[in-house]
From TrEMBL:
One of its GO terms (molecular function) is acyltransferase activity. Belongs to the PlsY family. InterPro entries: G3P_acylTferase_PlsY. Its main location: membrane. HAMAP family: PlsY (MF_01043). The keyword Lipid metabolism applies. It is found in: Cell membrane. It comes from Streptosporangium amethystogenes subsp. fukuiense. Probably interacts with PlsX. This is Glycerol-3-phosphate acyltransferase. The gene is plsY. PANTHER family: GLYCEROL-3-PHOSPHATE ACYLTRANSFERASE-RELATED, INNER MEMBRANE PROTEIN YGIH.
């Protein structure tokens, strides 16, 4: 139970760091009050541009990565290659990444008003299945170049994650990744519900 508790609590606290809010405030605004009111990379980028928003992209991605690595350390398990996490560390890593995503969505340090956890998911997947993550990045870049749209490339790369994982990991792991993606779907559903006409 000790490693699981460390993974969940540590993951949630890592996810709760409001990177987008901190970066946006340094530029004189609160992302929760402008644009689509989502305190994440895309909303901040719309206000201050790509270069200035890079710390948000990196910080939100690292939430998931650091949470996954924390779980491996707590379990005393080194990162596995090529298939990704294995053995007793699997539940801890998945719970840590889920906790980081929950922390990003409902952050303790930002009045529980957070983002949609896509980058936290991507960062966590880099620990869960490194080769699947690299395939996702390659797919993102290819789709972005072909369509000339990073947004489309990002969608293709993220939605391809479970398919890529199938090449390297058991189906049970892919189901776990699908459950993580359901958290993202929940956040999008909440945003759509909140923005409906009254």
């Amino acid at each position: 139970m000790g490693p699981l508790l460390v993974s969940v609590i540590g993951g949630y606290l890592l996810g709760s760091v409001p990177v987008a809010v901190l970066v946006a405030r340094a530029h004189g605004f609160d992302p929760r009050e402008v644009g689509d009111r989502n305190p994440g990379f895309w909303n901040v980028r719309e206000r201050i541009g790509w270069r200035a928003a890079v710390p948000v992209f990196a910080g939100d991605t690292l939430k998931g990565t650091l949470a996954g690595l924390l779980a491996l350390v707590a379990c005393g398990t080194p990162p596995a290659w090529p298939g990704g996490v294995r053995g007793d560390s699997v539940p801890a890593v998945y719970l840590a990444v889920a906790a980081a995503m929950v922390g990003h969505a409902w952050p303790l340090f930002a009045a529980f008003r957070g983002g949609r956890s896509i980058l936290a998911l991507a960062g966590g997947f880099a620990v869960i299945c490194p080769p699947g993550f690299l395939l996702g990045v390659a797919t993102l870049v290819t789709a972005a170049v072909v369509t000339r749209s990073f947004a489309i490339g990002a969608r293709v790369g993220v939605f391809g994650i479970p398919l890529f994982q199938l090449f390297f990991a058991p189906v049970t792991h892919v189901i776990g990744t699908g459950l993580l993606m359901c958290l993202v779907g929940l956040r999008f559903g909440q945003a759509a519900w909140a923005s409906r006409p009254s």
